[in-house]
Write a structure and sequence with these properties.
heterodimer; A: 312 residues; MetI-like fold; 2 domains; 14 helices; 77% helix; B: 257 residues; six-stranded mixed sheet; 10 strands
């Protein structure tokens, strides 16, 4: 109280004075949300623009090649006018399935270890290293697949091609391990300690707690991470372009050389295809197919994670 | 784990000390916790009462850097010996926590969880265990028509009784309760207290509470702890009407804490 008496000004007066004089501040206050809205709209507009471009060029393509020939044809050989997209789709699926078979068990096991077993110190060392894996350029992964994994697998499967789906798929899997491990670990760490205590108090072992309490409680986050990883595998371009060959083969034999949707887009875009040729348009049709795939994955993930959500 | 026991103590605690890192939380405690009675542990916050409780089923070991000395015997067996499997100890010494912590599963799955992880799989047997446990926790009539609904849809008091039922489902001998009503409203508290008194017939109960009236209402014996030491441990009536120690008297008359 004595302090107030010593001051020859009132804080309240100063506040009200500053409020009145600060018209610039008021303007900023009004402009900020508009600016933020603009930033939000940019990404929406970009998406719309991409879909528009894809649709426009795809429609041009479908005036030259029928939808039926495109989606039900089984031979992809654009330079001899054969536009059956199925071999590219099977190629993409093959790579994705191999990648998930590699990444899901390893990524999930790593996540369980980091969240349930590792000490704080170990976790703080391993997690950043894991995340470095995610920062390696995919072109490096591509050459890793071609010059290391492929010869190694060649020792086991003697009749394997140098360019093959298996080594590309495995390396795509390695690439997405950190994504699954890191995001799943986040989801599992977010499960409250009280749930673990509840199970431990009933005589559950650590492993039972991890599998039967933490995993189900974190399931929606884990599924989200896996679906994100699958989308990433479907869209992966550089590794498959380098290591999987460029042979549109309708096969599920992983030792064969294949071509994915993305790898064809690269091939078509870097080759001497002329503007407005059928091949040029086919790039967009393939891109559109890819877009539909990842869109479906996203919708699926939203549906699944809502269905399996365990709220705590 | 049925052995011939020649004294009436469920737990015998001898010269027990406990450290969190370098901080000693429990000093030289000696006490015998009687079988089939309700033992309350009271004391101000930070006095070590919850720590002591969590030591009895070794839940304290989930916290890193805990060290202990001295011995705690459960039914004459050292709980810290290498022969004692911690999972087995916890099936005999169950625990109910401060905040209701049902699993985010159905009411049925919550109660059946314990038996299931210990290998009981027959649907019919599980059905019986679930019903028996929910009746034992005095909540069967409230939930029997919605066993498949998520336990999180229940009120706090109901959730806590589900947690007690979950604990009863593995038929422990001892139930440890860590301030089980501190997160509940008065009516739910009353229901849980009545339940605890009911459970005394079949179980040894150790309850930590910072509510002295609650200790006086429900317990047979009361221990008063202060700064990690056991100040006084005697019959509840005796402790509240005629405390031997000056510090106990100060605490129960509200002069501190």
């Amino acid at each position: 109280m004595t302090k107030k008496a010593n001051l020859n000004y009132s804080v309240q007066e100063m506040i009200s004075k500053n409020k009145k004089s600060n018209s610039l501040g008021n303007l900023v206050e009004k402009l900020v949300p508009i600016f933020l809205l603009f930033c939000a709209i940019v990404s929406v507009l970009t998406t719309i623009g991409i879909v528009f471009t894809l649709l426009k060029e795809s429609l041009t393509f479908f005036t030259k090649v029928s939808l039926k020939d495109f989606y039900f044809g089984t031979e992809w050989s654009p330079w001899t006018d054969k536009f059956g997209v199925a071999p590219l789709i099977t190629g993409t699926l093959l790579i994705t399935v191999i990648a998930i078979c590699v990444a899901l068990p390893i990524g999930l096991a790593a996540a369980i270890y980091l969240s349930e077993y590792a000490s704080e110190k170990v976790r703080r060392t391993i997690k950043p290293i894991l995340e470095i894996l995610a920062g390696i350029p995919t072109v490096v992964y591509g050459f890793f697949a071609l010059t290391f994994v492929s010869p190694l697998l060649g020792e086991i499967f003697t009749d394997m091609k140098i360019f093959n789906a298996l080594s590309a798929g495995i390396v795509v899997g390695i690439m997405i391990i950190p994504m699954i491990a890191s995001l799943s670990e986040d989801a599992m760490s977010a499960v409250p300690r009280s749930l673990r205590d509840g199970a431990l108090g009933l005589g559950a072992t650590k492993f039972e707690v991890a599998i039967k309490v933490v995993l189900p409680a974190a399931l929606s986050g884990i599924i989200a991470s896996v679906v994100l990883a699958i989308s990433r595998a479907i869209g992966e371009t550089m590794i498959v372009t380098i290591a999987a060959g460029a042979t549109p083969n309708m096969t599920f034999d992983p030792t064969q050389s294949i071509q994915t949707l993305t790898a064809f887009i690269v091939q078509g875009a870097t080759g001497d295809t002329s503007y407005h040729s059928v091949i040029y348009n086919s790039i967009y049709a393939v891109g559109f197919t890819l877009f539909v795939f990842t869109l479906l994955m996203n919708i699926l993930s939203q549906y699944i994670s809502r269905k399996f959500r365990e709220d705590y | 784990m049925t052995t011939i026991i020649n004294n009436n103590a469920a737990f015998s605690i001898e010269d027990f000390n406990l450290w969190y890192g370098n901080d000693q939380a429990i000093h030289q405690i000696n006490m015998k916790i009687p079988r089939n009675e309700i033992t309350a542990v009271i004391g101000p916050s930070g006095c070590g009462k919850s720590t002591l409780l969590k030591t009895l089923n070794r839940m304290i070991e989930t916290i890193p850097s805990v060290n202990t000395s001295g011995s705690i015997k459960y039914n004459d067996k050292d709980i810290f010996s290498k022969k004692m499997l911690v999972e087995e100890l916890r099936t005999h010494v169950g625990m109910v926590f401060q905040k209701p912590n049902p699993f985010p599963k159905s009411i049925y799955e919550n109660v059946a969880y314990g038996p299931k992880i210990h290998g009981i799989k027959k649907k019919k047997v599980l059905d019986e265990i679930v019903e028996k446990s929910l009746r034992g926790a005095a909540i069967w009539d409230e939930v029997k028509d919605r066993l498949n609904q998520n336990a999180y849809g229940l009120s706090g008091g109901q959730q806590q009784r589900i947690c007690i039922a979950r604990c009863l489902a593995i038929e422990p001998d001892v139930i440890l309760m860590d301030e089980p009503t501190s997160a509940l409203d008065p009516i739910s508290t009353l229901k849980v207290e009545e339940l605890i008194k009911e459970l005394k017939k079949d179980y040894t109960i150790v309850i930590v509470t910072h509510n002295m009236q609650q200790a006086a209402r429900i317990s047979d014996k009361t221990a008063f702890m202060l700064n990690g030491e056991l100040v006084e441990f005697t019959d509840t009536d005796q402790l509240f009407s005629n405390p031997k120690d000056k510090r106990t008297e100060d605490y129960i008359t509200g002069r501190f804490g």
